[in-house]
Specification:
By secondary structure, the chain is α+β, with helices and mostly antiparallel strands. It has helices at 54-90, 104-121; strands spanning 12-15, 30-33, 39-44, 47-51, 128-132, 137-141, 145-150, 153-158. Helices cover 34% and strands 26% of the residues. The strands form 3 sheets. It has a 4-stranded mixed β-sheet, with no helix packed on it. The protein starts with 11 loop residues before the first strand and ends with a strand.
């Protein structure tokens, strides 16, 4: 098979990248951005690829290297803050002095213990007041409250 030679003029577009419109390119045409230094090649209408130059490849690789270094630093920070969060959540990490009693789980357990103790100490049933219509006395049932009338004042308190 013989190679067919076609005589053609090489056409190249150039300009600012923001003005680049790949749909305007024709087969075999190159496009160069004068501001971002990027290059494109049209293989057929609708099929345009960005081409890499050695310099842009080196620049891209340097950016990738920086991203990888930053990612490792971010991963280390995530691991550090994760351990600290675990320490403040329920202890057991060895990250902080006193973390076994200075964490959310410990404070929850302490709060629950005191709440349960308070419920057991005071019967939280609602008091029931009513008037005995025969005697005119104010009567009370329920709860653990103590009432006393002193000098015409109704005094009350809780009983344990």
């Amino acid at each position: 098979m013989a190679i067919q030679t076609i005589k053609a003029t090489i056409q190249m577009r150039n300009g600012m990248e923001e003005n680049f419109d790949p749909d305007q390119m024709t087969t075999g045409e190159w496009a160069v951005s004068t501001d971002s230094k990027k290059v494109w090649m049209c293989f057929r209408p609708g099929l345009v690829f960005r081409m890499a130059t050695y310099e842009s490849f080196e620049k891209d690789m340097e950016e990738i290297r920086v991203i990888l270094v930053e990612t490792k630093d971010i991963q280390k920070a995530i691991e550090k803050w994760y351990k600290l969060a675990e320490s403040y959540t329920h202890g057991g990490t060895g990250e902080r002095d006193g973390e076994e009693t200075d964490n959310a789980k410990y404070y929850y357990e302490q709060s629950k213990m005191y709440s349960d103790a308070a419920e057991n100490a005071i019967d939280l049933s609602r008091p029931n007041f009513f008037v005995d219509l025969e005697t005119g006395h104010l009567l009370y049932e329920g709860g653990k409250f103590d009432f006393e009338v002193k000098n015409g004042h109704l005094l009350w308190g809780t009983t344990l």
